[in-house]
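Intended use. Records like the one below are meant for learning the mapping from a protein sequence to its folded structure. Do not use them to infer anything beyond what is encoded.
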Amino acid sequence: MDIPILTLGLKRDLRSEADPNGIIYPQEAYRIAQEMRCDRYMECSARTGELVPEAFEDICKTAAMTTTPQGGQTEGGCGLM
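Structure written out for the chain above:
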């Protein structure tokens, strides 16, 4: 069984062209997620709420589509790193 690995980039609201120090652009984050062999990369801002509903919807859809070889859901849960 393949367990999908999702990467969620946070603090999207802090990305600013005026302050380029420490900024990770979406393209770079996506590349890093690919290097880590993640199945999906998403980003959002909890502060502004930007893309939060979409991120949770994607996470829930991915979890609902993940089944065991017998066709059921696993007994495990989500893991945070």
